[in-house]
Write a structure and sequence with these properties.
This protein is mostly helical. The chain is built from 15 helices and 2 strands.
């Protein structure tokens, strides 16, 4: 390797791992060295999360096809038959390179290029977008996998933290910080959660995309940064509280989706109301007090601010802003439910837009056909009424010919 590149890499590594970034004033990496009896978090441990994440991806693949897909079929989850778009190189090129939802002027231009009516070009794009949208069985399988993981992760977190003092007294998060030994149970709990969020990043291109896709990416990135930095800076105690609080509401969100895909409307509505209550309480009340206030205020009783203090708080505030964003969506859906008595469809999903347009188009065609049919019926009745004399003055011969009387 080039010596200059080696020197630059070494200088970057030394700069990145300065103890001023990661540890409180007065503490160096020498103070965090391990012994036979005491183990501290080591940054290199985080590399294990990558192969574990790939293992989770494989487990998910097997789970969805061997368990979730057959389960969905037995519970009546059926994919809607959608008409495919006819092959058209010009429209396909525009769809792939420009945009998936062209404006009216673009539709007119494309219609001229293809020598097709604008309505057919519009229908082609609608059906092409439908092809890219996930099927109902895919969404069901994804919800089943996430539900399974969140339940396992949440109860694992409770089992790990139940006998820990900081779970009951949040000031204990900072007792002895940063020289807090790493327990094996905390290590594996952290690896489980970090590996799962890495697996979500790896499967992002294949997962169901909703309107809050960008917010989901920000959420995954903030979570991975938060877990990784909190591990390196030994913020593990506060990090475990963040993980448990997040998993609590997710345990109710995924089954709500599952029952929605199964068309169990009443069960879905009840579960959503439970989810909304747990989410709003855990994310807007418990999280700010247990985590944000704890990290921002109580930690100052132990050490002076440093880079890690500001960085962790910035990540936690980012998560809280996302909580507020999703809370607004949830409150809006609950408000609609109170007014209408039925739950509005997921505001983050845009999978129904094209189907509604297709239905509107069919209704228009039916109305046109109905008018034509009605005019035919009235015309025949008119003939029968006004042409009765002509008809009665005719006699049918046995050979089928008509003879005038």
């Amino acid at each position: 390797m080039n010596p200059d590149i080696t020197r630059m890499a070494r200088a970057l590594n030394e700069w990145l791992w300065q103890h001023e970034f990661w540890l409180p004033p007065g503490i160096t990496w020498e103070d965090m060295k391990e012994s036979e009896d005491i183990h501290y978090p080591q940054p290199r441990d985080l590399l294990l999360s990558i192969p574990f994440a790939l293992i989770l991806v494989v487990i998910r693949y097997v789970f969805e096809r061997a368990i979730a897909l057959p389960l969905g079929a037995k519970l009546g989850v059926r994919d809607k038959q959608r008409p495919n778009a006819q092959p058209n190189p010009i429209l396909e090129t525009f769809y792939s390179t420009h945009c998936k939802n062209p404006k009216e002027s673009e539709l007119i231009s494309l219609a001229k290029q293809c020598d097709l009516p604008v309505r057919k070009v519009e229908r082609w794009f609608r059906r092409r977008r439908n092809t890219d949208r996930p099927s109902l069985s895919k969404k069901f399988c994804e919800a089943c996998w996430r539900f399974t993981f969140y339940v396992i992760a949440f109860f694992t977190g409770l089992a790990v933290l139940y006998d820990k003092p900081w779970f009951w007294d949040h000031r204990e998060c900072w007792t002895g910080y940063p020289q807090q030994p790493l327990l094996p149970s905390l290590f594996w709990y952290y690896m489980l959660e970090l590996s799962f969020y890495w697996s979500l990043v790896f499967t992002l291109p294949c997962d169901v995309k909703r309107k809050d896709f960008k917010e989901q990416i920000v959420h995954h990135a903030a979570t991975i940064f938060l877990i990784s930095f909190s591990y390196c800076a030994n913020y593990i105690r506060i990090g475990t509280l963040v993980l448990v609080i997040h998993d609590a509401s997710d345990c109710f969100l995924e089954p709500t989706k599952i029952f929605n895909y199964m068309k169990w409307k009443k069960t879905c509505d009840r579960l959503f109301m439970i989810f909304a209550a747990v989410f709003l309480i855990s994310r807007l009340i418990i999280f700010p007090y247990t985590v944000l206030y704890n990290t921002y205020y109580y930690s100052m009783e132990i050490f002076q601010p440093f880079f890690g203090y500001y960085f962790v708080n910035a990540l936690l505030i980012t998560l809280q802003l996302l909580h507020i964003f999703w809370s607004c969506l949830i409150i809006h859906m609950v408000y609609k439910f109170i007014l209408q008595g039925t739950m509005e469809k997921d505001m983050r999903s845009d999978t129904e837009e094209s189907d509604k347009d297709e239905e509107k188009e069919k209704v228009v065609e039916k109305e046109k056909n109905g008018i034509t049919c009605f005019s035919n019926v009235t015309s025949s009745n008119y003939i029968q009424r006004n042409g009765s004399e002509t008809l009665t003055n005719r006699a049918h011969l046995t050979n089928g010919h008509v003879k005038e009387r």
